[in-house]
Amino acid sequence: MALFDLAWARKTGGAFVLRIEDTDQARLVGGSEQQIHDSLEWLGLSPDEGPIQGGGYGPYRQSERLETYTPFVERLLADGHAYHCWCSAARLKELRDEQSRSKQATTGYDRMCLGRTREERAALPGFAEHPVVRMLVPEDAPTQFTDLIRGTVNAPRPDDQVILKADGFPTYHLAVVVDDHLMGITTVVRGEEWISSTPKHLLLHEWLGFDLPQFAHMPLLRNVDKSKISKRKNPAARLLWFREQGYLPEAVRNFLQLLGYPPSSGEAEVASLDEFVENFSWDKVNTTGPVFDVKKLDWLNGHYIRSLEVDELAERIVEYAVAAGQLPETPDRSQKKMLRAAVPIIQERLTLLADAIPQLGFFLVDDGALEVDGASRATLRDDAADVLDATIAVVEDVEPFEHDVIQAGLRASLVDGMGIKPKFAFAPARIAITGSRVSPPLFESMEILGRDSCLTRLRALRASL
Description:
The structure is a single chain. By secondary structure, the protein is mainly alpha-helical. It contains 21 helices and seven strands. The strands form three sheets. It has a three-stranded antiparallel β-sheet with strand order 1-2-5. Strands 3-4 form a two-stranded antiparallel sheet. A hairpin with a 3-residue loop joins strand 3 (144-147) and strand 4.
């Protein structure tokens, strides 16, 4: 939603507004608003107006605007478009249960309180001390509207929706209509689950004399099995999960662009936000809910990683590793220098930032502290000691100490001289240098570490055999 809000605002010279709709106090989750701000900032989708940015139409939290809604509720009551309802929660539940059991074609509130005074209603069962305010929806309520994505849309007839709760907070329906009008909102972008609520909003706009905004109801994202993505069950529904996994924000943003609508024939899948804005069009949005398949995101992330300059990629790896606890909060200069030198040998094969330190960790430990993986050590053949002796001899004398020269020297000694297949010839050196039989390119790694470190590590493994 934020991506499409921002793109449309920029395309039309408007403003992207972030409004915190926190009128449902029972569902508030601590830290959720900060998560919204952090997510948008990380993705480069920060709003033009909002609780942090400010603006001319604040406050931007609905819980701070309660006095704003009062006169509109009073006007609806005075004009006969709304009424008080004293029905208790237990009575409403009984009503719903009965309608469900009897399979009534028309469900919703039965207007027990309509036209009654407080005293009259108090004499009947299921009375609550503090009333709510409900819309009085007419039989000919408008149920058809024009949507920027879907064209003409027919929605179900609404029931008498609560617009002011017993705690004095407005419901979403009243609050957004009033705030959209007062904040000058001309385009409302939201999920398709709100289509059924739009007739309520059409009525409120009409009754209050507000100009109608444009509506764009986006399709809902789906899991690979085509089920709706659940915020409770799918960690990917929380945007900062992607940052924690090591995805780049530009890759995630590009991925969301593709989910919004696939590129037309001949259009590239990789596109910047500016390109997305330039080519933005509501009629490109597919009304079928797109499948949220992270395989495409992995491909995009790898592409963006390969596109970064080495210095920037190294900086991002360090920033990620510190946040993830892979590196100390203040990495020393030698670690950063070593990472900068080593990043080019893994850049082409890197998918996530999270994968960098596990691959490059052997560069960041002292030679004497390198631990050899037990499973890798177990793969060493009986001739490992002889192979390491020959490897040490080459490393001691090879000049210059560069990867192609190192490789040529070891190949001549081990493959040609001792008749060992490369797969086995270089395995002892790889395990000694990196601590594992699986590692980044061996000879480039040796050049980066330098002759002294390589000899220390080779001799340590040799001494243990």
